[in-house]
Amino acid sequence: MSWDVVSLEEDPDLGDEMRRLGTEAWPEFLRNGDTPNWGKLFTRLPAFQIVMREPDGRVVAAGHTAPLVWDGTTDDLPATIDDIVTRGLETTDGGRTPNCLSALAAIVSKDRRGRGLSAVLLKAMGALAAERGFASLIAPVRPTWKSLYPLIPFERYIRWTREDGAPFDPWIRVHARLGAAMLRVEPKALTVEGSVEEWERWTKMSFPESGSYVVPGALQPVEIDREADRGVYADPNVWMRHPVLEADSPRPARRRGAIR
Predict the structure, then answer these.
(1) Quick one: CA dihedral 127, 15, 114, 82, positive or negative?
(2) pLDDT (0 to 100) of residue 1
(3) Are 236 and 222 spatial neighbours (Cβ–Cβ below 8 Å)?
(4) CB neighbours (10 Å) of residue 126?
């Protein structure tokens, strides 16, 4: 099958479909995290938001990215998801020339998962980076299966491997197979804070006393403090870097249409 890759700049009407996929993909508590600038991706960085469409026009995947100026060191990596968005906006607004594309989210429709579309979407992001002449595609990777092992320290989990030596986690494995290398762990890529009542509504759970709770979809426990009427969760990611172009490589011609 072939897919058409289109940016939100090329078709502004795709915004609703991108939002639908995001709502479908993420647990409700994550949609209440500290990402106040997320909506600006749609209005101010539309050229860097892409969707994959099947021949009948159905949107089956969406990729959110932002252009950055990055010096190539781990110290210069953004600390949070919102920092990525903010730096992307500042780069564009300040008239700076970006040299890197940062992924923010790669979402595949539930009924199209397991067919390799996530890898195709990452390749489309890499093509977007190459088209712009960027040297790197970086990604704050949220491991798919970590929520099944919430009590295992994140730094240990991301190093797990299968018998064949490939990464244990399927999303990390997709990145690794495309040549990506780990850079550093980001322990608080996204933070969610809310009242106990809000957490009970978001998770459809009850929290009768203060303590650490395993919540469906969370990569590590949520800390509930009933006395303070507060629940706090930090979502960890691991930064990975995909090579795109060497500094002296020629910039490729723009290619649109089907990706196979």
Answers:
(1) positive
(2) 63
(3) no
(4) 22
Structure tokens at 252: 């490729």
**What is the DSSP track for 197-230?**
HHHHHHHT----SSEEE--TT-SSPEEEETTTTE
The first and second tokens of residue 14, run together, are: 């795709």
The phi and psi torsions of 67 (rounded to 5 degrees) equal: -85, 135
DSSP-assigned letter for residue 139? E
Long-range pairs for 126-131 at CB < 8 Å and ≥24 separation?
126/178, 126/242, 126/244, 127/5, 127/255, 127/259, 128/7, 128/48, 128/50, 128/65, 128/101, 129/100, 129/101, 129/244, 129/245, 130/244, 130/245, 130/251, 130/252, 131/251, 131/252, 131/254, 131/255
User: 63, exposed or middle or buried, with CB in 10 Å at 0-12, 13-18, 19+?
Assistant: buried
Q: pLDDT at residue 249 above 50?
A: no
Alpha-carbon distance of 111 to 62, in angstroms, equals 14
| Rg of the chain, C-alpha, whole Å | 19
8-state DSSP, 161:
B
Residue 258 has pLDDT above 90, yes or no: no
> Binning pLDDT at 50, 70 and 90, where does residue 246 land?
very low
Instruction: Look at residue 19 and give its three-state secondary structure.
Output: helix
The CA-to-CA distance between both ends of the chain, in Å, stands at 7
SS3 content of the chain, % helix, strand, coil (to 5): 30, 30, 40
Architecture field, domain 3-190+236-247: 3-Layer(aba) Sandwich (3.40)
235 CB-near residues (< 8 Å, 6+ apart)? 30, 33, 142, 188, 189, 190, 191, 192, 218, 219
Q: Where are the domains of the chain?
A: 3-190+236-247
